[in-house]
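#dry-run=false #mode=assembly
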Amino acid sequence: MALHESVVREQNERLSALVHTPTFLVVAGSLTGLAAATSFENGVAMGAVSAIAIVVMAILARPLRSITGIFARIPVLLLVSATVVTLISFAVRVIDPVAHQELGIYLPLAAVNGLVVAFIYDDGFTGDPARGSAAGTALFGAVCTFATLAFVGFINGMFSTGEVFGLVNKELAASPIAIFGTPAGSLLVLALVAVFVNSIIAAVHADAADDAVAQGGER
Amino acid sequence: MPSSNESTSKLSWIARHRNGSLYTFVVVLAAALVCGIVMSGAYYYGQWGSTAFADADARLDEAQGGAQRALLFPDAGSFTEVAAPSIEGLNSVYQADTGGYVFDVTSAGYAGDVELMVGIANDGTVAGIQVVAENETDGIGSNALTDDFFGTFTGLEATGTLTIEEPGSDETQVDGISGATFTSTAVVENLNIAFEAYAQLGGN
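#status=ok
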């Protein structure tokens, strides 16, 4: 039995409130590159590729939408995002062949990031802190993806090998905490990042609420 | 009441036709062609139009080789490439700052070439062996490319000629791996090439 239109609308509004947040941007952008962020260098490379793919697809989303219909949109966006990521992977191969070798087939996964952003940019998705600007939101997502993957790679590299920037901490790598060096551990680190982002949002909203109270509340 | 014909005519030709089947087919085909041309053009330029990919592959080989050389001589701080003697199967020679040599050698195995790095310490003994590239059969030929088998050569004097068959004069017999004769022979041949190169460089 189909749901009543008002129920569907309410569900959509609740879902929209859930995803129109910086936390969603951070998680959606970083998720596909997590397994490849096994060291700081790999995290930076994967983050850079994902960020560039996000920005390029955000730029191309509107022009492509204007020339594609509802049946051609998905295939064309898929083709274009795969092309963008392939060109970026060629650049990675030339700039850092070791990172290209280590990332391997994970590089094309950044196409998923670009594709998702193309769809949500297309729908006019905006969220904090660039509410009202789709371009600003896409750029914020790209920066967060880069920063998150670099951070995840840093944590994974430190806990799995006990070494970061040439400094060694073998005791850490030999302890159970080294589970953070596995892809499952990457999800834990991403959860910590999401909590951190949520705490910033809560602090910003609390400040805004305090300001409203200080000004006398509703009139 | 506004006329639907008037609102339709205000839309562009693309807006009016873009949900049609023929337009969809043409757009997807055009997108596939454009994307294919762009990707193949970029690959062609990187591979054949310039030396970008070749230089990148050379840097990758150097980085990976450096990592393997460091495994053979962990105490070495740096490796310097030296002029390799003209011996068939000898690809390159590096000398560690501690005095040892690393020989990159290739011999024919069962399913193609077997490329190894043979480290010879400055006391004239085999320091270790690393696999660079091989295509041997898993579980059969690969049994002759294990650390255990390589370990039987560690400490061996890097002189003379080794063989897994009945030794002639000036030959030393060593054990191969049962069922992996071709690969064992390739490993022994690689060691012989490294020994010959070491001798020509002033070793034993």
